[in-house]
Amino acid sequence: MSIKETMKYIDDHKDEYLAKKHEFVHWSDKYPHELHANVLLLDGKIENWKVGNMKADSKHYPFSSYWKVNRMKLVTEGDHQFYELGDYEVKSFTWTVNNYKEHNDVFNYHASEWFKQWEHADDYRLGKAY
Q: Looking at the record's lineage, which domain of life comes first (predicted)?
């Protein structure tokens, strides 16, 4: 397709593109939306944390890092083995934000204030929650 043909195609289809544009907006640019602060605790201390659009629970957690596997529970179901949280505990707090400022305030202020109710683990190796 030549440049001239490409430009004509774009011009002919711009209304269709503009009508669908909202479908391609990133989740963080659509309001209102929820943000979740998630903390992974072991013996009441922070082992890991994350703030984002996924809420953690005992079956699904967005943490990626080292784990003290000996404190987890190895489960066997048929031919499959996997770890459950065992001694770990997951807690979450959710904010509904209505604009860019509220979104940023969760990351820059509110989440770190919420995390302050726990100390970091003595052997904590990651970026601190506060």
A: Bacteria
Structure tokens at 74: 């190895």
Judge whether 58 and 85 are in contact, CB under 8 Å: yes
Task: Tell me the pLDDT of the chain (130 aa) as tens digits.
Answer: 788 888 888 888 888 776 776 677 889 989 999 999 999 999 999 999 999 999 998 777 777 766 788 888 888 999 998 888 899 999 999 999 999 999 999 999 999 999 999 999 999 988 999 9
- What ranges do the domains of the chain cover? 31-130
Question: For the whole model, what pTM was predicted?
Answer: 0.75
Contact 57, 92 (CB under 8 A): yes
